[in-house]
Amino acid sequence: MNLQGYSVIDCDLHNEVASLATLYPYLPDHWVDYCNESAFTGPDANDYPKNAPITARPGSKPAQGSPGSDLPLLRQQALDSVDWRVETGILNCAYRVASVHNPDLAAALATAVNQWQVEHWLEKEPRLRASIVVPSQTPQRAAQEIERWGDHPGFVQVVLPVRSDAPYGNLRYDPIYAAAAKHDLVIGIHYGGAPGHPSTAVGWAVSYLEEYAGMASVFQSQVMSLIIEGVFDRFPTLRVTLIEGGFTWMPSLMWRIDKEWKGLRHNTPWVKHLPSEYMREHIRLTTQPIDGPTEAGYLRQIIEQMDSEEMLMFASDYPHWQYDRPEEALPVPLEEGVLQKILAENARTFYHL
Amino acid sequence: MNLQGYSVIDCDLHNEVASLATLYPYLPDHWVDYCNESAFTGPDANDYPKNAPITARPGSKPAQGSPGSDLPLLRQQALDSVDWRVETGILNCAYRVASVHNPDLAAALATAVNQWQVEHWLEKEPRLRASIVVPSQTPQRAAQEIERWGDHPGFVQVVLPVRSDAPYGNLRYDPIYAAAAKHDLVIGIHYGGAPGHPSTAVGWAVSYLEEYAGMASVFQSQVMSLIIEGVFDRFPTLRVTLIEGGFTWMPSLMWRIDKEWKGLRHNTPWVKHLPSEYMREHIRLTTQPIDGPTEAGYLRQIIEQMDSEEMLMFASDYPHWQYDRPEEALPVPLEEGVLQKILAENARTFYHL
Description:
The structure is a homodimer. By secondary structure, the first copy, chain A, is of the alpha/beta class. Chain A is built from twelve helices and eight strands. In chain A, strands 1-2-3-4-5-6-7-8 form an eight-stranded parallel β-sheet. In chain A, helix 4 packs parallel to helix 5 and helix 5 packs parallel to helix 6. Chains A and B meet through helix 7, helix 9 and helix 11 of A and helix 7, helix 9 and helix 11 of B.
């Protein structure tokens, strides 16, 4: 639908570290030497390969560097958008420190990325908020990184890749959640990650189509783990946003887990409420990419089945390319109240903006 | 709803190998000696631990052996059911030969189980059909096993555990599909399995609740793999039934995979149709366990969203315990035509009964 004139909080913008050299000013000499000596080029996953036409929105590549690496261009295309009026944009930097196997280098890279985010993004554009990049494979280091930046008003979130070493409900991650809760930060679980595990529970997929579409299953595993392993009981103020994982699978997961919890809850006595109640209270999902129901009415049914108008939050996923026309960013006609919730109010409440 | 008087094809009954000794008459002497010497008790996963009240339907344990191990009792409770009129019941024996690491022993156990199924179940009860148990971890052996029994009119299916060494679209499994297609057998992918991989794509779950509810995600991975890796293009007559994995997640998966296929199909040029078209043509799902939508209307919405009245097939899952009252086996009032399709017609067509 046409969103012109609407005030929007865009919950998923991607700022990109153009190259490892971008971070050299923020890295200790030792690591600069190490990177040069080893010819390490950084944990970037080549999200925007040259000459690949559909990885990023047309025109989003600046003269120098990859899409999302240039603030003036991002400002012009994503914040000063003519398609809607952006009140706040939340940056999720996908620099993959969680896949660096040297824990000291991973921690140093995270600090460098966050310093770079402060200097080059947050201090230059008041509409932006950002997500703290952390070495989540070493939770105590991740917690230190959160402590380092947690009081900076520009950071509203800690971003974790959905693919992880262990399910995120695992006790080992508690230091991350403790630090996030202390600083009132949302945990943003984002598409991607390369922990070493295969991308499915039955081994490696063979094509990107399978991996991409299959990521929704990984999100489901993480939601179940967070709830069943008691994260929200240990950290009752913690909030989690699921980013770029779709959302039409949510009602089915709610029904299934609620039903089985009734029969098996004696094994997880700390889970005191229906799992779907934890979901509605603690979890939000961004709208891009929409899973593409064949009928507009089906998307409305999904929202109804979730039994909540508060769970969805608008995202453009800039500079990724998920829709051809701005109207497709939210393809369903919605009544005014629900629309405003999805476009801005839900995020304003959830992120305490 | 009340199903009394309705003719039913029950697509999921479990016959149980009471103990390894049950199979000794059908095992070569070498393997009997080996089992005795090594104190191996078989690959049974202890589905029905003694004194655990909710693993099986009350009253389904015979005087000797575990629930499902006694034909007269299964006949009385599942086939001569007073809750509905069973026309045909399809046995899915869950004897876990796919988790036996010695490939020769696994193959010998499969042959023994199938011989036992013929003599003790199929030859004694004409309403029963059965599923060939195969050592799927060694596909050429599995194909030999299918060849051995494929012309027996009692076998209508090859049963595979949903958790596998590799996604089932992988080329390594082609011998299984070739043999099944040759003998006009359905591939039944059933809840469970123990291939060694963790039960989620992000590592081990910590409770049975998490593993059980999470199995739906594993089914999703297998559906994607089968379609995207081209199994139905290589074997255009192959049919697959998904058993005990729920089904309310199906519309979301259809939408997601169709959408992403449109953008990425050039990487998998053998997938010539919309993935959802393959699903509607080649895949069916059994009704137990129902994922438990909170409103009857939501289940009707799911059937509508699948855009097919042919995909669901009734199952009781006897002797497992998925519902307290028979009316809950299919909790939604459905119009006569759809009801008859789900209860019997869809299975009659799909299994060529």
